[in-house]
Write a structure and sequence with these properties.
This protein is mainly α. It is about 75% helix and about 5% strand.
């Protein structure tokens, strides 16, 4: 009963979070940008607060500014692509799409250069606490780990899988939110199956020095769940079965590695969760750890197999 109560609490919070997430994603445009930017600012605050327990003093405001600029550049790039028309693959990988992607890449690199230079200058302050090297590196890492990675969450809203694979009978809903649903459903199903499988069947520890509660049995349950859900959602979107299986397997592995990577950071900072924003789910980084690494993975997969063919 204790496991059931915990699962129900997590489920209620997850339903509310998904409603807000997909509601803003359905609106798209600048409401979606505002939601993702809010996630980024909260996640950066969680990360910078955690590292301060190690006597590290990152430049929080510089990190916020750079993350906002990266997301703003990504949103502008998607707006340019949208000029080619809704559900038009040319908007994604034609001349307009490739030009917009190149411009966003150049702007992102400039912002990262600005971040590196800015955080070094911020260390000029007299009696600065901590190591200037560590302070600077931590600031930039936060921008890349959260700002750059979350920019792919923003981009994924505009990745039209049915249009890319040539499905002409797909619903408008699948065009608008299909790519996001594909990744989020697979990754969070992996998390849920790993949680339940570990609690019910777990015997052998997966990585006891990093996350003592994770088990091999739970990891395998999560891996299989990611594949099954990727196949179900992917076929609904018209994605060929072999791509569904491969992407599901990749998310089942990389998502769990992202979770373990987050656990390394928490163990080093000696904290249980990054925050209590989402109750039993912890903070933004606790809930979106696997999403952060899987969104770029899936986006690039589609880029190599479809987006770059134009």
């Amino acid at each position: 009963m204790s496991l059931l109560r915990k699962f129900l609490r997590r489920a209620v919070v997850a339903v509310v979070l998904l409603a807000v997430l997909f509601g803003s994603a359905y609106l798209g445009g600048w409401p979606w940008f505002a939601f993702v930017t809010a996630l980024a600012l909260v996640a950066l605050s969680e990360y910078y607060s955690a590292v301060r327990t190690k006597e590290i003093r990152p430049d929080k405001y510089l990190g916020w500014l750079c993350a906002i600029m990266i997301l703003f550049a990504a949103q502008l790039g998607e707006d340019v692509r949208a000029l080619a028309g809704p559900h038009n693959p040319t908007a994604l990988y034609g001349d307009v799409g490739l030009s917009a992607a190149a411009d966003v890449l150049q702007i992102t690199l400039f912002i990262l250069l600005f971040c590196v230079a800015g955080t070094m200058v911020s260390q000029f302050k007299p009696r600065n606490v901590g190591s200037p090297i560590v302070n600077s590196a931590t600031t930039v890492f936060g921008v890349v780990y959260i700002g750059v990675m979350l920019s792919f969450v923003l981009r994924m809203r505009y990745l039209d899988i049915p249009a890319l694979v040539g499905v002409e009978t797909a619903s408008g809903f699948s065009h608008e939110l299909g790519a996001l649903i594909f990744v989020i459903a697979s990754v969070w199903s992996c998390d849920t199956a790993a949680y339940l499988g570990g609690n019910l069947l777990g015997r052998r520890k997966l990585a006891p020095l990093v996350s003592p509660n994770k088990t091999i049995e739970g990891s395998m349950a999560g891996f299989l769940a990611a594949i099954v859900v990727a196949v179900v959602v992917g076929r609904w979107l018209g994605l060929p079965g072999r791509h569904c299986v491969l992407l599901g397997a990749m998310m089942g592995v990389v998502g769990q590695l992202g979770d373990l990577g987050k656990s390394v950071l928490k163990r080093d900072a000696a904290i249980k969760d990054f925050s209590s924003l989402f109750g039993p789910h912890g903070g933004v980084l606790d809930r979106f750890d696997a999403i952060l690494v899987c969104m770029p993975l899936v986006y690039w997969y589609f880029w190599f197999f479809w987006l770059s063919r134009g």
